[in-house]
Fold:
Amino acid sequence: MSKLIFVLLLAALAAGGWWIWQRYSGFADAPLSGLEPGETLVVESGDSFAGVLAKLRAAGVREGEKLEWQVLARQLGAAGKLQVGEYALAPGMTPRQVLLAMRDGKVISHRFTIVEGWNIRELRAALAKASPLEHDTASMTDATLMQALDHAGQHPEGRFLPETYVYTRGDSELDVLKRANGAMETALEAAWSQRAADTPLKSKEEALILASIVEKETGIAEERPQIAGVFARRLKIGMRLQTDPTVIYGMGAAYAGNIRKNDLLVDTPYNTYTRTGLPPTPIAMPGIDALRAAANPAAGDALYFVALGDGSGRHVFTSSLGQHEAAVREYIQRYRQQQRQAQ
Structure:
């Protein structure tokens, strides 16, 4: 009789174990209910497993007892190893997928793009709106910002490479700017190392300044070497650059979207109509193509260019003042014609 009882007990234990295993397996790989699209969970430094589970509950997860979550975490090697960060909780995820993501640190990535041609004011304004980036530079002047980036005394204009930077929750504006600054230094060094032998530029700094002007003069990639060629030839012969973007930069907040003839006569360090040579600093953030164009301008004899005025953004390049003046007249004629058609 005792042997029969023992067998029955073993059978009951086996059945109970099978039931528990089935329930556990069903929990681990069953889709979680209650999650909404776009739901996230943030694991912070110092969060306990119980605290993370409480955040899951607050996000709408109701499945599983605490013990089931703990057993699954131990099985996956996630117990005590949940990584800090922000995690996506998509509808249909299973407990196994949730814990594996937190164990492996598969955090949500965010992106911030520095646009080619932005100036430092535009860059800082965009950073201030970026979320969930931590805003640690809001109270900094440009000078203290560059000091924080270990470039004390350096002007911030043009120092950050236009590119898309990936960051995660907890990263700050300074984190992104350090990477962008390092990327610009690398790109500038690469462009300068491949510079033309006959370049009139004396340093990487001058290459960066010229690249920023090229960036503001055209959005057409294949025109950048031609634009750079015009300015390089002017620098070689001591001819003033006479480029509107530098004048606009020198006007600062006074620029209201339209440059007048009188503005070209107001002398500032950035007025290349009144001063010979390059301006004292870059005027924008140049991209890699503009850096390469400044270091390796296209050959030719053109000393002038003017917009076609046909909406393409392209330019007409000429080698004499007479040709240039004729191109300007054609531009004005096309512009006026478009104005009449728009009325």
Q: What stands out?
A: The longest strand covers residues 40-43.
